[in-house]
Design a protein that fits this description.
By secondary structure, the chain is mainly alpha-helical. The chain is built from five helices and no strands.
Amino acid sequence: QLSLTPLAPPAALVYRLPPAWRGPKLPWKLLHGALALTAFGLTVVGLVAVFGFHNASKTPNMYSLHSWLGLATVLLFSCQWLAGFSAFLLPYAPPWLRALYKPIHVFFGSTILMLSVASCVSGINEKLFFTTGKVPAGREAGELGLYFYLRACTTGAVLWGCWGCGIL
């Protein structure tokens, strides 16, 4: 999920830029879709590498919460990208369908972002189990995990409009 976690916030925030920066919607839609597609491509490369490594080293696949969170994240993300592409980029979707799907798309986008952070943090924790006793590794892992959580929380605050509500 190290591909999705860094790329999902910028993809989501493209639609929350200050009004003075907005141009026509199509370039923003294309940038949003391109960032998401790049994240998806890198995620697939990562999954192929992980399953290949596990198979080569005779390590079982899908043996932990990290594995299942990651798989759920990737499956939801795949559905989200396909549905978003169909509803918002293809010209045949009627406006009423786009309006109906938009809040669903926003909800699942935020959900996928949080799932990707949970996948990363559980993966960091899982990795620490294999390197117990190494204090620098534990400190770095904690800092990386906190960074992921803070970035996700900041992105969520922007997406849900908390900048002007006195919270931030």
